[in-house]
Give the backbone structure.
Amino acid sequence: DLIMDVLPDWPVDQDLVNVATTSLQAHERFSALMRTRLQNNFAAKNAIEEGNNILDSLRHLKSRIEGTSFIFRPISLDHEQLILLKHLVIAHTPASLQDVTKTKIVENITLLLESQVKRVLYACLLTCLWFAYTQPEVSAQAKNNLLFVVYVAQDEQFFSL
């Protein structure tokens, strides 16, 4: 679920937003420089992690100041159901995809996202035909297939996985 604060905690002050933006950008540059210069320094890992936490706090504060604060609650997927869906996706080429298999894929998507999303808008099995034709074994032809799903969790937003 994604919950959007419709109104900020206080009226939006553009000066505050500008200062928060400048501060956030400065800390972004500082964090990037720190990660680059200290990436091989084991003792500095805590400092890098602390810098990332401060960066997250600054992002949250800026979004509250400008009235665009979001609280994201990710959906949880059943691992067993996901494995079944993965098997269906990587086991079929366009030539072997029957209506029965399409129905099973739709049913699995529905079970996987049931009670977590409002509705599924779109599902597409993307195949890599040039890769499939380069593979002599049928079992390897669908190895690079992808399942693209767009769903609505709340009326204000949608995500894809």
Q: What stands out?
A: The CA atoms of residues 86 and 147 lie 8 Å apart. The beta strands are 2-4, 70-72, 119-126, 146-154, 157-160.
